[in-house]
Amino acid sequence: MTSFIPLEQYMKEIEMRLVDSISSSVPQTWNIPASLRESMEYSLLAGGKRLRPLLVIAAAEAVGGQREAALPIAQAVEMIHTYSLIHDDLPAMDNDDFRRGKPTNHKVFGEAMAILAGDGLLTHAFHQVVQASRLYNVPAEATLDIIEELAIYAGPSGMVGGQVADMQGEQGITDLETLQYIHQHKTGDLIVFSLKAGGRVSGASEAQLAALAKFGQCIGLAFQIRDDILDLVGDEGKLGKKVQSDVKQEKVTYPYFIGLEASQAELERLTLAAKEAVSDGSIPFPERLLQIADFLTHRDH
Ligand code: GRG
User: Fold this and answer.
1) Which residues form the signal peptide (predicted)?
2) Is this prediction's pTM over 0.90?
3) Within 6 Å (CB) of ligand 1, which residues are found?
4) How far apart (Å, rounded) are the C-alpha atoms in residues 132 and 137?
5) Phi and psi for 99 in degrees, rounded to 5?
6) Rounded (to 5) percent helix, strand, coil in the chain
7) Which numbered atom of ligand 1 lies nearest the CA of 86?
8) Is the CB of residue 216 less than 8 Å from the CB of residue 183?
9) pLDDT (tens digit per residue) in 89-121
10) In this structure, which of 94, 101, 172, 230 has its CB flanked by the most CB atoms within 10 Å?
């Protein structure tokens, strides 16, 4: 466990370690077309909050494990997340021109290369998970569990399924339950994966994994509700994008169904439930996770 530095400094440390290591994660000795490497690195290094790597490492440390062993998993989840954003921005999906304050991948490299850069990141993520075992002696059985769960939480029954439900339901969603299904899978599942995988690196017990999963489910939904609220009442300068875009695009959101005040109350309820899940005594060092839950509730971008 590292000494208990302020959360902002902790996040900065993890971001720096991630950025430093992620650019060399595709070995220079591999004979890869330069344009593919450039396109993958462009999006990987374009910034972002690095929330999922933060959760992998915070969960590993909360269970009493070492940061370094969790790093390949943190890289892997950021690769999956980045691929999903590249593909989500494509003309066939959301058709966005900017992401993380920069032109989207397909605007710079063309559509075909953006698709392939996403494919490359998705595939390479599985290579990186294996490195936790090869380089840091994470037991093969735990690594197998992490690989299996990455396919479950990021694949058809997870993030990809959530994206499809969102696509098919666009503008036609009539109930909160369907919206919850979309949020749970499209956004929440990768967050749950990150926490459980971090725990697995540190040899978490079943009770600890269940506590981390519950924490992830709650903050995952809370994260999305906060997104919806920020789109209505956020500061454009801090968000780096126009507010009220959900209203303009007639997107159904939490505030659309239950109003702004009730959405805020639900956000607070979920944050409390998340904090309770890791405060039941099963997690030896829950303090960082508690801080992260509060940080996400109050984030302004
Ligand atoms: C294309 C299979 C496929 C999936 C796409 C993640 C996703 C699924 C789409 C992104 C669109 C979106 C606004 C999703 C909901 C919230 C979300 C996951 C936002 C992006 O995550 P952040 O805020 O992004 O952590 P940064 O850039 O900070 O990493």
Assistant:
1) none
2) yes
3) 48-49, 51, 84-85, 87-88, 100, 159-160, 163, 186-187, 227
4) 7
5) -150, 135
6) 70, 0, 25
7) 1
8) no
9) 999 999 999 998 899 999 999 999 999 999 999
10) 230
